[in-house]
Amino acid sequence: MPLQETILSTILSQASKRIIEKIEKGKKLSSEDLLLLYLDVLYS
Which pTM was predicted? Predict the structure, then answer.
């Protein structure tokens, strides 16, 4: 896997973990959160 894909995968994974924590706390998701989740689904 090229370096760029590895970095992108790592970033999206960390962002998804943060978003899941937000959901568990009952907070609303922003447009950016939804976009990051969508990208995570596409690239994982």
Answer: 0.76
